[in-house]
């Protein structure tokens, strides 16, 4: 449902508005194989990574901006579609009270494990049953910061192409490789090549500072409420403990992953 | 609006239901000086820290649970109020589709800087204009994990007593000291005693690993979008850089604070 060229939409009941709005729902995203990214900064990041939206939706009467003009030109030059609409309709599409003045529609990427090139980076993050799209996007952002190759999503995770995850990734959805797999397939894939699987654990673990990390290092983080299943921890090549000085016995999943990832980065650098 | 004893509420229009529901709004929380915490785990954490709700709201027909029975007994013994209601009404109060079977009303704590005892810990976190209540709660959780004294909120931050912040803190709202102040008052307070102010920065900074941290160390984290104002960075005693290997030049605020806090912990331990 994408047409090259430029058009204007002024009616809330226009089918394209309904289509764009439907991409906020996972079911519709999966059926269409498309996702939404909002905001000039995010779309500029995407463009700099070589990813242009198939459809660019802009509010009429927006402030002119050189980056937006460049983006518009690039989308047109590549045969994409430009839609101009009202600020109210853009609000309806993005579901935010204070919408960005621009949104783009992208095709979802291939998220099969076989598409990952593990030799491309020394650090990978692996999340198991991560339910919060904000945590997922934050982990992608951390992956970018530590120079990781990407994020592997195990079992039933939040959708990396949700508006919330894309937003929290701050553009890293366009720079990082993302794969989705169940645990058995992941382990089979992992053991078919080089790779050290590491998790924070309270069982049979060594201090996380100075632990013998080795690249490519796969940092495994568990579900927000339940942590990692015991058999997943048992599969790890290295289990590390992080100090817990207070009452709680765990950190936020994205925080735990980041503290470990920075430790691995310092160790391998 | 709290009455010792036990009563049952079955009507949606009951004024107590409206009152409890109103505590989801900051304006009403501030007027009443009360906040809501949801879930048996959170309320049990609070009790173990010596904090009992003034009012305990429970769904009728809930599964029996020894911890809930203990909590109920403790609230009654301390002259608190017990309200039994329907699952539907509890859903209305908490605003969640899948509510916890129990919620409690607590009095907000004193959040003046003068109530902080800086000698009680070697690590403190300081957040400037932190807008996301989930990030705020996550920082409290990290404070607990690294044995920090608490979190100081500078300028216009999210409300630490919001339902989202309390939930993300995983109980740390009950263990950590929390203060609110504007920048000028904070600096005056800080410079009246010992304390090293540290921030992640790109200007005039040293690597964060092995930097000369000293306790009590105050780790300053800036706003999610804009980072720290330049004059706030200039006030810092130590500016550190963290590796940024990718396209982005910053981490999620709660993540950046946590990576720094674990580094400070390792350095001071």
TrEMBL record, chains A, B:
GO cellular component: cytoplasm
Family: Belongs to the class IV-like SAM-binding methyltransferase superfamily. RNA methyltransferase TrmH family.
Domain of life, per lineage: Bacteria
Residue ranges of every copy of the RNA 2-O ribose methyltransferase substrate binding domain listed in the record: 36-112
Molecular function GO labels: RNA binding; RNA methyltransferase activity
UniProt keyword terms in alphabetical order: Methyltransferase, Transferase
Cell membrane is among the record's keywords: no
Pfam name, any one: SpoU_methylase
GO annotation, biological process: methylation; RNA processing
Organism classification: Bacteria, Pseudomonadati, Pseudomonadota, Alphaproteobacteria, Sphingomonadales
Presence of keyword Methyltransferase: yes
Protein name as it appears in the record: RNA methyltransferase
């Amino acid at each position: 449902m994408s047409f090259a060229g430029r058009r204007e939409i002024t009616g809330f009941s226009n089918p394209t508005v309904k289509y764009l709005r439907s991409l906020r729902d996972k079911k519709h995203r999966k059926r269409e194989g498309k996702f939404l990214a909002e905001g000039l900064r995010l779309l500029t990041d995407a463009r700099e990574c070589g990813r242009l939206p198939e459809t660019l939706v802009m509010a009429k009467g927006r402030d002119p901006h050189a980056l937006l003009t460049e983006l518009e030109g690039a989308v047109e030059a590549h045969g994409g579609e430009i839609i101009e609409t009202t600020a109210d309709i853009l609000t309806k599409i993005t579901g935010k009270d204070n919408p960005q003045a621009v949104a783009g529609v992208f095709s979802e990427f291939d998220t099969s494990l076989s598409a990952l090139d593990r030799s491309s980076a020394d650090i990978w993050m692996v999340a198991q049953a991560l339910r919060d799209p904000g945590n997922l996007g934050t982990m992608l952002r951390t992956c970018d910061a530590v120079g990781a190759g990407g994020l592997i999503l195990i079992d039933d995770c939040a959708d990396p192409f949700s508006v919330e995850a894309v937003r929290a990734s701050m553009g890293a959805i366009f720079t990082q490789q993302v794969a989705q797999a169940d645990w058995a397939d992941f382990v089979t894939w992992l053991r078919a090549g080089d790779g050290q699987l590491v998790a924070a654990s309270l069982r049979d673990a060594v201090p996380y500072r100075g632990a013998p990390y080795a690249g490519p290092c796969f940092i495994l983080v568990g579900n927000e409420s339940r942590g990692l299943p015991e058999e997943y921890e048992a599969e790890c090549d290295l289990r590390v403990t992080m100090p817990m000085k207070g009452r709680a016995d765990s950190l936020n999943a994205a925080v735990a992953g980041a503290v470990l990832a920075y430790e691995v980065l310092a160790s391998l650098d």
